[in-house]
Structure formats: structure tokens, C-alpha cells
Amino acid sequence: MSDNAGMGPEVAVVGSANLDLVVEVATIPVPGETVLGGDLRRIPGGKGANQAVAAARLGRRVAMIGRVGDDDSGTILTAALTSAGVDTAEVLTTDGTPSGTALIAVGADGDNAIVVSPGANGRLGPGDVAAAAGVLEAAAVVLLQLEVPVEAVAAAVSTARGTVVLNPAPAPAAPLPLDVLDGVDVLAPNQTELAVLAGHSGLSAIGDVDPDTAVALARGLPVASVVVTLGAGGAMVVTGGKATHVPAPRVEPVDTTAAGDAFCGALADALADGADLVTAAEWAVRVGAAATLRHGAQPSLPTRDEVGHLLGGADGASPGS
Q1: From the candidates 20, 185, 255, 261, which is the catalytic residue?
Q2: Does the annotation mark 261 as catalytic?
């Protein structure tokens, strides 16, 4: 892994930045129910920013492409990225628009419910991506999500020269264009997102897809490699006609808010080092598990050394280091 700050990014992230408004509750309310919670916390988040910070905390050179509003939240979000070592030269400010905001309830068991107001994230367009073409072309891995318009995602897919990883979150309301999926090297959905992409609405409503079904659904997608996250069950890697289950460390989570983002950032970290997909997933499940042991989105994302410490002293080195 290189430490040359003057070089281009190893990982480029095109995605969202949100200010998370977090309240801890005993139980997450059901429709029509009101519950009392703890004190409100304001924490930098957003899937794109979280994944950028996750990879940067692991030691990667990371650049972020996105938009924030011209408000206090935008200043906070950009400063948090910069503090984590992320290059924010391509994080643009949108005049007269609020920054993205996520309303998050965290239950006593660590599970969460999230509502996202995209704000400036919804203004990220293909022109913004084209203006950052040099960044995307230089990166070994381009990491994408769906909290920004799909047109921006498509532009990033067509511009990237390295490995393209798409975390299809939140699950798309409409089928993704085939030209987007054709350009994706690794698709990294959770069980619900996999079911939605595969057109199995009944399964997506259930939330949990058993591993055998996950493999069958993944093989039906027009993507060369799929890594399905299974929560506490780890991940299933489906590539080259082979399916491999990668178990996760057993932990007692306190907040799962950024576990998926930690997984994706770590996956990009390992792939940027040249690791094969199974080895990368083995590292990613460890980093994802470690992120559940602290509160908040970006505050929970571990450094390389912290991964082993949080998981009980195991070696925190990633594959390829």
C-alpha cells in the first residue's frame, strides 16, 4: 500500500453526503406509534461519504465526488471528509439547497430505521462526474451507491478505468439500466437489495434471503461478480460460476448504522491492493463487524489497527498489505 500523497486516488467514490440526525430508542416505532428517545446527535454520514471515510481510515488515498448544500451541514460534512484524509476537491457546493439529511432511530439491539432527505445529493449530475474524469480514470477502484441520481452513477460507470463496485443502496425503485450493470465489475447488495434487483418483491419484503436463494438470484443478474452481505451471517461471494460463503466474526453490536458502508469501503481497500474477491470479502466482513461495536456512522469506522483491537486482538492487516 502506497503512502505517496502526491499521487492520484486509489479509490474514488461517487456518492452522497448526509448529516445524520440520530436518536437512540428502546424499540424502533412501528407505523402510527410514538416513542421517546435519547438526546439528538448530529453525525456526518451518507453512504458515499461513509464509504470514502471507511477506505481512507484503512489507509487508502481516496477522492470523493459529490454535492453538499450551502448551509452549516455542508460545512460540517466537507470538514469531516477532509479530517479523515479524503480529497474533497470534487465535492461541490449547491447554492440555495440544503445538504442531505438522514433521520435515524437506533434501537437497543443495534438495529436501525432510516429516512433520507437527499437535498444537494439529488443535484449531482453527469456534468459533475465528467468534470472529475481525471480522478475517476486514475483510481484503481471506483465505488458507487444509489443515494445520488442514477444518471450520475451511469456517467461514473462509463468513465471509470479501474474496478467498478456498485453498492445498490438504497434498493432502486425501478430496474437499473442494463448499460449501468454491464459496466459494473462487482455488485455488493444486501439481501433485500438483491431480491429487489432480481425482481422478487415477495422476498424483498421478508428481508432475509437464505444463502442458496441468494446464490440463485445473484447468478441471474447481468454482473460478473456479486458479493451479497448477510448481516451477522457474513457474505456470499458469487463469481466465475462459484459461490463461497464468508462467515463474519461473532460480535455484540451496539449500532449497525454504518456496517454495510464499512464493508464496502474495506472491499474497495482490499481490491485496490489486488486481492481476489473472496479474500477482499474476508477482510470486509471483519471491518464491517468492527464498525458495529461503536456508535454513529463515521465515528464507528475503524482504522486498520483498530479492526484487530475491536475484534479481540486479531491481526488487523488487510489482504495484500
Answers
A1: 261
A2: yes
